[in-house]
Amino acid sequence: MRSGTAGAERPAVAPDTGERITVPGPPALALAGVDATPSEERPHRGRPRSGDADRAILEAAATLLAERGVANMSIEEVAARSRVAKTTIYRRWPSKGSLALDSFVVRFLGQQPLPDTGSLRSDLLRALRSWRRAVLRPDTARSLTGLIAAAQDDPALAAAWRHRVVEPVRSQWRSMFERAIARGEIRPDADVDLATDMLFGPAYHRLLNGHLPISEAFVRAVVEYVLAGLGAPAVRPAAGRTGNI
């Protein structure tokens, strides 16, 4: 992968099946001017410099975001944990919200591989399962819900959230439906935006309200409802896979 290129992709292997998939590069690092290629661990003497400083800042911010949320983290604490001067942090990130968002995006988008199995059903299942695995991590769930909540009272953060998270992720999800149209799996006039909302809307609803679990049965049911709405052939549930979702 070319470092410092927004939206760059890299090949990977799905942990559950061993199939080759495509993982989006971390645009947050690229837009921040950071080399996204992992570096070897090295002893730190004094304050980190250059790309090391940016990585240290983002790691410290991600940890504080998961521990305390946006409202209760501070640039002073990020500076202390990262061993980077506060003035250096403010030169790179103009606000606490923008730093919190960048630190989250780097990790979250890296956990959202883009499946391309040749089957819409399989792609949708893999995409929603990847999202589910990510948000079932307590630190990711706290960070995600905290940023969504903070964005309601911060217009700049809300705009950045849509630009940095919602739009790139939706573009990735849309591509699964567009490939299915090209293969003839679903009709050409299918409403791809609505289908995308139908796939992840229920998942975010359960995440934010916590009223019902985001279970594997729920994932399968959502995918089948989306496919039914698109006119795709239904699949009978396997024995023992019925019940509450």
What does this protein structure show overall?
This protein is 59% helix and 4% strand. The protein is mainly alpha-helical. The chain has a two-stranded antiparallel ribbon with strand order 1-2. Strand 1 (9-13) and strand 2 form a beta hairpin. Helix 2 (50-68) crosses helix 7. The protein starts with 8 loop residues before the first strand and ends in a 16-residue tail after the last helix.
Query: What is the gyration radius calculated from CA atoms?
Result: 20 Å
Helix-residue proportion:
55-70%
Determine the mean pLDDT: 81
Major sheet characteristics: 2 strands, antiparallel
Any guess at the CATH architecture of the largest domain? Orthogonal Bundle
Strand order of the largest sheet: 1-2
Order of helices and strands: EEHHHHHHHHHH
| CATH top level class name of the largest domain | Mainly Alpha
Q: Describe the global form.
A: elongated
Distance between termini?
39 Å
Determine the CATH topology of the largest domain. Tetracycline Repressor, domain 2
Instruction: Say which CATH homologous superfamily of the largest domain is assigned.
Output: Tetracycline Repressor, domain 2
Number of domains: 2
The total count of helices amounts to 10
Structural class: mainly alpha
**Low-confidence spans: pLDDT under 50, at least 5 residues?**
1-17, 19-46
Care to count the β-strands? 2
Name the beta content range. under 5%
